[in-house]
Predict the 3D structure of the following.
Amino acid sequence: MSELSDLYQELILDHNRSPRNRGKVEDADGSAQGYNPLCGDQISVSLKMDGDRIEAVKFEGSGCAISTASASLMTEALKGKTRVEATELFEKFHRLLTEDGSGVKLGPGMGKLAVFSGVCQYPARVKCATLAWHTVKAAIENEEGQVTTE
Ligand code: ZN
């Protein structure tokens, strides 16, 4: 894990130690489970909509520091966003992780998510970081079944 040490920035460590929005949303409008077999990360996401806006989003599960911190930061980023805004944010986040982060123009709303830009150097870790996002996408669309990164 030593080669990953530069990924474990303070913000990621902090969100891994004390994840935000952990638990289950009551009377959820959508939920989904995600699994990353490569690393063993498991997550379930539930959310409550207010019309087209995400009123609340929470997650449960167990996984590595990257997947937990990413889920935690994601729940903070998505609160109050519309479905379209959430999808746009996911696409930007995905580009940040899969392209050279410096070339990606971070629009408003990316904020703290930018700490994951270093992950693009570790392709296996990209799946850890995007698992929560794939899962929340399914929860928004309220798809049945389990999302997997494979
Ligand atoms: Zn992982």
User: Anything to note?
Assistant: Residues 2-143 form a domain with the Sufe protein. Chain: A fold (CATH 3.90.1010.10). The helical segments are 10-17, 65-78, 83-98, 123-140. The pocket of zinc ion is lined by residues 36, 39, 41, 63-64, 66-67, 128 (CB under 6 Å).
